[in-house]
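pasting for the record
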Amino acid sequence: RFVAKGNRQEREQRVRENLARFDLTELGNAYPMELSGGQQQRAAFARILASDAKILLLDEPFSALDHYLKWKLELELREVLKSYGGAAVLVSHDRGEVYRLASRAAVIERGQMQPPHTRDALFENPQTLAATLLTGCKNVSKAERLDAHRVRAADWQLDLTVAAREPQSVAYAGLRAHFLEYREGAEDPARNIFSMEVADVIEDTFSYLVMIRRAGRQASCIRWELPKAEWRAIKAPVLSVYFPPEKIMLMES
């Protein structure tokens, strides 16, 4: 429950300011049942910011909003958090929200919270399968370590050179879709360049999602995301693709 503090004049002024901030001025006297889901969400923000709460729990705060209003409120929340003196906990399934708003993050799997990390550490080296998937990685394969510098990605049917020496016991390997790179010429497995065939091409709003797999193999597809102009320049049924060793994420569990 959030209660505005101060004398009556101060409370009324604070309420008016926050109603205006969230475009709710005309609904100031409305009952909750009279508000849409998005309006209720905005009203909750207004109540929070009109109070002097020491801890904010933001549970999917933008879930009922359209894209434009969601972005507008996210910008408002960013400004609030910059000057907020208390603690704020954000719960979200949206990796973009977490990346833009949080300084530290942790993954909850099967009701258990994994150790928290800095935002960048979590996204660059998720360490577990659950964290890798929740941070948005679309390409994951079962894997085993061959030696200190190589792993075998069984689902992709690729033996990959990797930069990470840890963990020693590898269960999965992952690679984000926008880290793959096109290379001219023949494949060179020793340098992580493989001949890949195109299984499907999906046009997205501002990019192409190119589904590729090891040429001549019945391997699982790998999602490759690249700008439209770049794909149109290299479009071919079979092409050489580079897997950057430093971008391959290894997971023990």
